[in-house]
């Protein structure tokens, strides 16, 4: 049994276009788990959000959330946290964004937005982890896990990415979880670092670990593991950064489930 651990991203990977698990995916995960392999979720979502999805799959494993800023063990006890420094938070939130760029904040128990939007609700119907409208300057005595920017204006989002890399790139981790979502976490926070942390605890080598992902926030973990698999719908920039990695089916085609069935079942 070469591959003892399987790590899966959620959106664009395990979840379909409706941000739900297909019945085929749920059944396949259940059957692969019976073979004795450990299956983990590694996501950019908040841990309270991801926990509900983990429960739907019947997993009893570690959970990586907010791109590695939080790790919870099998019993949902937090075993690792890393937050953005307050002075860096203040700077990020002081930057004026172009119209059409929406700002979001994750704290330990909240997802804050500046204005209400219907699509935020539909995106999280499965987990029921919903946003709260709040003036960011009034967030007090809370840990900032992640700040992210969402926009359909890709060019402006890329300009913002370039600006933050230039000005605070040495103090934070910056990534695009999708073409319309720019995310900022504390320095050295990545899914790759989180996976190394967990596998060391479980005495599983990275060589015996495989991972599935579709976004640039999956880059480090796909690079670190023994077998990093790209979804057929993955970001072009991710494909360019990992030109030798195998590409499988798309998330809307149950790509992960089909691959796991062929390999393990």
UniProtKB/TrEMBL annotation:
In the UniProt record, does the keyword Magnesium occur? yes
The family classification in the record reads: Belongs to the HAD-like hydrolase superfamily. Cof family.
- Mind telling me which Gene3D superfamilies this protein's record contains? 3.30.1240.10, HAD superfamily/HAD-like (3.40.50.1000)
Q: Name one Pfam family in it.
A: Hydrolase_3
GO molecular function terms attached to this record: metal ion binding; phosphatase activity
- Give the NCBIfam families listed for this entry: Cof-subfamily, HAD-SF-IIB
Q: Which gene encodes it?
A: cof_1
Q: What is this protein called?
A: HMP-PP phosphatase
Listed A to Z, the keywords are: Hydrolase, Magnesium, Metal-binding
Q: What is its EC number?
A: 3.6.1.-
Name its co-factor(s): Mg(2+)
Q: Which chain positions lie within coiled-coil regions?
A: none
Stored InterPro entries:
Cof (IPR000150), HAD-like_sf (IPR036412), HAD-SF_hydro_IIB (IPR006379), HAD_sf (IPR023214)
């Amino acid at each position: 049994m070469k591959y003892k651990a399987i790590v899966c991203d959620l959106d664009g990977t395990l979840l379909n276009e409706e941000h739900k698990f297909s019945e085929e995916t749920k059944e396949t995960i259940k059957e692969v788990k019976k073979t004795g392999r450990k299956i983990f979720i590694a996501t950019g979502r908040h841990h309270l959000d991801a926990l509900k999805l983990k429960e739907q799959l019947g997993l009893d494993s570690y959970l990586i959330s907010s791109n590695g800023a939080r790790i919870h063990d099998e019993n949902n006890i937090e075993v690792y946290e890393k937050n953005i420094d307050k002075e860096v938070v203040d700077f990020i939130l002081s930057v004026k964004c172009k119209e059409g760029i929406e700002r979001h904040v994750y704290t330990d128990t909240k997802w804050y937005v500046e204005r209400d939007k219907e699509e935020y609700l539909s995106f999280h119907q499965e987990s029921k982890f919903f946003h709260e409208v709040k003036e960011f300057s009034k967030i007090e005595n809370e840990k900032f896990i992640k700040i992210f920017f969402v926009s359909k204006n890709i060019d402006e989002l890329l300009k913002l990415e370039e600006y933050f890399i230039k000005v605070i790139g040495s103090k934070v981790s910056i990534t695009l979880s999708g073409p319309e979502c720019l995310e900022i976490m504390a320095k050295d926070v990545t899914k790759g670092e989180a996976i190394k942390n967990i596998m060391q605890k479980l005495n599983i080598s990275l060589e015996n670990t495989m991972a599935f992902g579709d976004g640039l926030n999956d880059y480090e973990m796909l690079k670190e593991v023994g077998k990093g698999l790209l979804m057929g719908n993955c970001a072009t920039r991710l494909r360019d950064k990992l030109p030798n990695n195998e590409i499988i089916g798309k998330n809307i085609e149950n790509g992960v489930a089909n691959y796991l069935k062929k390999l393990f079942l």
